[in-house]
Design brief:
Blueprint (H helix, E strand, L loop, with lengths): L3 H20 L10 E5 L40 H8 L44 H19 L1 H10 L1 E5 L2 H8 L7 H4 L2 H21 L4 E5 L8 H7 L8 H24 L4 E5 L1 H4 L46 H12 L7 E2 L3 H6 L1
Parallel strand pairs: 1-2, 2-3, 3-4
Antiparallel strand pairs: 4-5
Helix pairs in contact: 1-11, 2-11, 3-4, 7-9
């Protein structure tokens, strides 16, 4: 059974959803389009046709998703699926590999499992669409929109859209903290690495701005050191997380929050905002109704194999597999990113406010 806390989260989500519907008499969403960049936390199927180990287009992934397994790395909806619903979109934002024709006018999801800010991140898993490549795909979409609407109308449309970017987790999971495969931990201290990542990320975000993005929400990194795979790899004391990983992540998050301030100062005709995923996910998960925090619902700490039998009590698990949260976690993250519950959830504004600018 779902806990009282989890019922509250779903109630908050549904309340926000109904509130938006009341304000959208004509059925139109808050913004004309929603563009999504990121990694497996946002991927909706872009990796399906790639030669890679980073895939989720098989059961039991999608066991609670209306369309079954689609390439989403969870049992149901992702954080960006919930955000798109809260923004008022009917149906899901299409993945880049499936978006055709006028589909692109409502937005595209470019996210790719194992992708990172750095080019080499995740290469041991096979192909992945790095953030740089995602931006190239976005530029192709911009050209399509210009063809459909005309250059001036396309520019105007894009300026009203919401963009979310959630990237960087793999630069730690599938790069820095794999010293046998990648040299970065020998080349950089955690502070230096975070600085290098943010420097590259800044250039990528400026490219996004150059191609029309004016309302951009950046997801900070979550508690990577608490993921079941990291617990298995580093064996911290029972009931704790891998502190040095979470500390490294916080260095990145602090610099990302500062970058948001810098971008808002530099680009006065746009608004960037930081979503504090680490902070929203902190606290005692068991107090929020989750009973299992250190093992995935499918595969425990070692990965979710095709046709494996997942747990039946999925709302009691923080993680669906060894890295990715369950839908029950995603709904809370999305609700608080969209409409902040505390001042520390976002900086400076939540996605609802961003959409209404």
């Amino acid at each position: 059974m779902a806990s009282t806390h989890q019922k509250i989260w779903w109630s908050v989500f549904l309340t926000l959803l109904l509130s938006n519907c009341q304000h959208e008499v004509d059925g139109a969403p808050q913004v004309p389009c929603y563009f999504i960049f990121g990694d497996s936390l946002s991927d909706s199927g872009n990796n399906n046709l790639l030669v890679t180990k980073a895939k989720a287009n098989f059961k039991p992934y999608g066991i609670d998703f209306p369309l079954g397994p689609t390439g989403r790395f969870t049992n149901g909806r992702t954080i960006v699926d919930f955000i798109s619903e809260l923004l008022g979109f009917h149906g899901f934002i299409p993945s880049f590999v499936t978006a055709t024709g006028k589909d692109v006018l409502q937005g595209v999801n470019y996210a790719s499992g194992a992708a990172g800010i750095r080019h080499e991140t995740g290469q041991h898993l096979g192909d992945r669409i790095t953030l740089t490549r995602q931006l190239i795909h976005y530029q192709l979409t911009v050209a399509q929109i210009a063809t459909l609407l005309g250059a001036a109308a396309a520019k105007d449309q894009l300026s009203k859209c919401v963009f979310t970017v959630g990237i960087g987790s793999n630069d730690y999971i599938n790069n820095y903290f794999l010293p046998n495969l990648y040299p970065t931990s020998k080349e950089f201290t955690p502070e230096q690495y975070a600085k290098a990542l943010i420097a590259q990320y800044s250039l990528q975000l400026k490219t996004l701005y150059e191609f029309g993005a004016r309302k951009v929400a950046l997801f900070g990194l979550g508690l990577i050191g608490c993921a079941p795979a990291e617990l298995a790899a580093f064996s911290p004391p029972k009931g704790t997380c891998v502190d040095n990983i979470n500390s490294a992540v916080q260095l990145f998050n602090d610099k990302l929050k500062s970058l948001v301030n810098d971008l808002n100062t530099e680009f006065t005709d746009s608004k960037f905002t930081y979503i504090n995923i680490f902070g929203i996910g902190s606290g005692d998960p068991k107090a929020a109704g989750f009973k299992v925090t250190d093992s995935g619902c499918c595969g425990g700490r070692t990965g979710c194999a095709p046709s494996a039998t997942p747990c039946s009590n999925r709302r009691e698990f923080v993680f669906f597999d060894e890295f990715h949260p369950t839908e029950a976690v995603n709904v809370n993250l999305a609700a608080r990113a969209y409409k902040s519950s505390t001042p520390s959830d976002v900086s400076p504004i939540d996605i609802n406010t961003l959409a209404n600018l």
